[in-house]
Amino acid sequence: MPDHVAPARTIPDALPVLRERGQHEVFCGLTGIMWLHRKIQDAFFLVIGSRTCAHLLQSAAGVMIFAEPRFATAILEEGDLAGLADAHDEIDRVVTRLLARRPEIRTLFLVGSCPSEVIKLDLSRAAERLSKSHGPAVRFVSYSGSGLETTFTQGEDACLASLLRGVSPAPSTAPTSLLVVGTLADPVEDGFRRTFDALGIPVHFFPPRRAWDLPEVGPGTAYLLAQPYLAETGSALDRLGARRLPAPFPFGAEGTRGWLAAAAQAFGVSAARFEEVVGPAERRAQAALAKIREGLAGKRVFLFPDSQLEIPLARFLHRELGMELLEVGTPYLQREHLAAELAMLPSSVVLSEGQDVERQLDRCRAARPDLVVCGLGLANPLEVEGITTKWSIELVFTPVHGFEHAADLANLFSRPLLRRARLKV
Question: Which CATH architecture best describes the domain 17-25+289-424?
Fold first, then answer.
């Protein structure tokens, strides 16, 4: 940790929060399908929505040339929206055609959208009905990806919480095991698995790569959140009797060490063994970050609320890269899950929850930060005004967790500044 960084505060010394309830600029929860469908390899995501929903998914996914994607949109037409057609009959017809074309599907997610919620379409009832007619070969699960009240990462939270409804409760005599919760890129997951194996900690990852491979969850389950936006999923695990391990999130060398240390302590790993396994990778990450920090130290950064990664990222930018935090905005603030992160933020930072986009833009323009982390809708206008930006959605699609990807994460923030410097020449 750099010398200028203040030590972590105690939890009672809480940062004040500026709560805003105005117009906000975020993608909807349907966007989460882009990384979920790549992770859960035997699942298909069927959005019950409009042509706008279909266009969003196409735009978010890019052009897929080499493989047929495992998601689609059952488009609600005018007759469906006006109540002139039976939407449930239409869903049954689309699902039957889909399963005939894609017999490899084992789990089919019915994903609600703004239009389906506006007309009060009960997708949970549809999932129960379809499970009876197509089960047990195919399991149907429903969740909402609507953007009416949510931000885009909450789509994953709703999806994982819905999957937990199919988890078997572990008997009280089951051996203790660790559950890592949150979608991770396969190389990141494989690296963490090797680390936990070396520490002697039995581990499962959720979501699994196959939707049917759900772990048992019960009083013997300790879980680590790999993503900070899984409030509903965490509550579902708590109701199943699992125990959350408080920890920072595994972004950067400091966060990854703290995250792994929480598991090591819970499972009785000796300090010597922990250093033997974790120390070399941590030192490599610190050395890689030191080179990048030279170009970022002292730079002023402003984070708009978008992905819910903002608070862990702010801690990483300040403590490991030496950046000055002006404002850290987040769509929703889950203090319990973020307690370790909040304790490491400097007392000078403005912490905001929710958004009133015009007021926040005014504060950003007045501060004239060196770098702004924001959504796509705000990035181009700010760039025109001469303010350097970083798209926050890229931080979700890119492997950034763990020691091996700490430098990759740092480079995501350094590249926009390097690009701006070259353009000035």
Answer: 3-Layer(aba) Sandwich (3.40)
